[in-house]
Amino acid sequence: MEGEYATSDLVEYGYNRDKKQGHEQIVISLLCNKDGCPIAVEVLKGNTKDDTTVLDKIDDLRKKYGFENVIFVGDRGMITQSKYEQINHNSVKVISALNHKNIQDLCDKGVIQMNLFDENGIVEVIDKNLRYMLCKNPIMAKKEAKTRQDLLKMTADELDKIIDSTRKIKNSKAIRAGKVVNKYKMAKFIIFDGSDENLSYKIDEDKVQKESLLDGCYVIFTDASSADISAAESVKSYKRLMQVEQAFANLKTVQLEIRPIYHKTDDRIKCHVFICMLAYYVMWNMQQRLKPLTDTDKTAGANKKYSFDYIVETLKTIRLDTVDFMTAKTSIKSTPNEEQTQIFKLLGAKL
Fold first, then answer.
1. How far apart are CA 272 and CA 265, in angstroms?
2. Domain of 306, in residue numbers
3. What is the pTM assigned to this prediction?
């Protein structure tokens, strides 16, 4: 939010997911269907935490939309252990993912083994009332290994500079070294010995090797029965969270630019957010209709021709101008080219 808000029930300081400091904010709760199509939006107080909205949204699904059997899909930050127990107590089933520590704990307890992770399929393990879907992504495995290797190298380079330094600085070498390993989040792989002038370190290769076994591995868990949802559909449901994340990204910065917000009354703030959601609803439906065009373009990344931005820019060249010269007035309408005609046909729209 921009400016000062003297009286508002919505605008507050809170945890900012984009690391923007010094700004009051609002929190948006967006409800999408399983395909990522927006259904409803709500504006919440700026200091609202993600996990505090879970039970309220589940109640909404039951009361507003009439769903009786609900399986709630949430990311690891939203489905904490305490929150899982609350949700479970309300007779709602859950799908979420484990972090690396949780996976390692299951391995240590003998519930799962690392050799069960398979690049070619999903392996399901059942323990008491929980089902664990073990998956492995070889592309992600290479990426995670490279990231760790790069971070370890940057950590080692900075530690070497600190240890070799002869300058007298206020903070000791140990304090500066601690800040470095915390900055790169590599503390668990570094073993220090000595102190200050005699400080030395080494990389714990055993821990690096143990961590590398988890590269590309992820575990989706659910307490829903296989009769309610299959293992494959459970994994697919969790991956669909990316579509909701994409919806938020589009709302915030990509095409619709919901911010900055300058409105000074709560009603106008809510209207602004609702209009942006309607715009995203139109954009989402356009993207579905344009799939025969966009899906045929196999080029990846920035080189992809038929992106949504490109299509919008292409349509912007179509104009309707009114020419008023003295007593004569006439309208001049652009004639769509072949590409624009194809886009209009797919959209089901007419000039």
1. 11
2. 294-347
3. 0.72
